[in-house]
Amino acid sequence: MGFISVMNKTLFLWLFVSFFVSSCSFKKERFPDDSSAAINTIAVIIDDQLWNGVVGDSIRNKFASPVLGLPQEEPLFTINQYPVKLFEGFSTDTRNILIVKKDNENKFELKKNEFSSPQNAFHISGKTSFEIIEILEKNAGDIIKKMRTIEIEHNQKTIKDSLLDTKKIQKKFNIDLLIPSKYEYVMRRRNFIWLKSEIPSGNNSLIIYQIPWKKISSNNAVNDVVKVRDSIGKLYIHGTAFRTQMVTEEAYSPYFSKTTLNDYKTYETKGTWQMKNDFMSGPFINYAIFDKINKRILILEGFCYAPSKEKRDLMFELESIIKSIQIKNSK
Fold it and tell me: How much is the pLDDT for 116?
């Protein structure tokens, strides 16, 4: 009986240890990454004391600042905050992670694909809150740029799962684009194509057209972009009511910047549109691409109408589509 009792105790201990190890492994795979599939969401790993103080304020000011060009305030990123102790020893599939803590040295480091792939894991540590904020201030612009890049690449990868046939666009404009199959051609003219995706209580639109090389000047770029897009609205984009047309909202100045797309000089303009003589309105993002080889300015614009919805991710989808452009050298 004594031998059997010892064996039973040994078996129980082995089962207990096995269960404990299994439980730890199970927990390790269950780090709260409920946002892993969500676009424009980041995990911020930081202790509550720092999060609820000036360091947390700095993070929110940088990464949850309002998106430019939207009619209502929406944050650049949706932030999920977790304490450092909860994170240590756990894994996550979240694409963008910001890990902030006090330590014996001041450090900023980006670790690519540290816990999963694709992923940016930004590590920031400092001896004091002030030193942490200094590192945040210095690197925030680059961090945001890398975060947005990985989000756009993820969105484009998702688009590839179900693509629209774009032969009509290729033939007319000599470009390739990744467009989801949920978009439909609603209008085609000689130098103009309009595609639309219906959503609950609204729609997302993509328009593509080309204009002469000198139609937009560097000296008066913003006004020229607005003038061109308003002329296109007058020609093609009308509401259901009589004498309605899409125009640029005059009450707010558009946000303008210079960038490159597919290595081509490009003007990016963000703002809001309205339907003249109607109550419809919404945000737009416009890219004027200077295609010197083909002696044209190629314009791709996304705009949405979704009065009862948040618009950040709808516009981000359009931006991801436009930034997938590949321009061929000659017609």
Answer: 86
Q: What is the DSSP letter of 287?
A: E
- Among 311, 286, 309, smallest CA distance to 299 is for 286
Is residue 155 within 8 Å of residue 323, measured between CB atoms?
no
For residue 182, count other CB atoms closer than 10 A to its CB: 14
Spatial separation of the C-alpha atoms in residues 56 and 244, rounded to whole Å: 47
Structure tokens at 308: 């009862």
DSSP per-residue codes, 192-259: EEEEEEEETTEEEEEEEEEEETTSS-STTHHHHHHHHHHHHHHHH---SSTT-EEEE-SSSPPEEEEE
CB neighbours of residue 200 within 10 Å: 8
Per this entry, what is the length of the chain? Answer: 331
What single-letter amino acid sits at 13?
Answer: L
Relative orientation angle of helices 54-63 and 129-159, to the nearest 10 degrees: 30
| Token pair listed for 331 | 């017609």
Q: What is the chain's mean pLDDT, rounded?
A: 88
> What long-range pairs does 51-59 form, CB within 8 A, spacing at least 24?
51/81, 53/129, 54/129, 54/133, 55/100, 55/129, 55/132, 55/133, 55/136, 56/81, 58/133, 58/136, 58/137, 59/98, 59/100, 59/136
Cα–Cα dist 74/71, whole Å: 9
Burial of 295 per CB tally in 10 Å (0-12, 13-18, 19+): exposed
First to last CA, the chain: 92
3-class SS at 27? helix
Single-letter code of the amino acid located at 325: I
Q: Quick count: other Cβ atoms within 10 Å of Cβ 33?
A: 21
- CA-CA distance, 98 to 87, in Å (whole number)? 11
pLDDT in tens, 208-265: 999 999 899 989 999 999 999 999 999 999 988 788 999 999 888 899 999 999 999 9
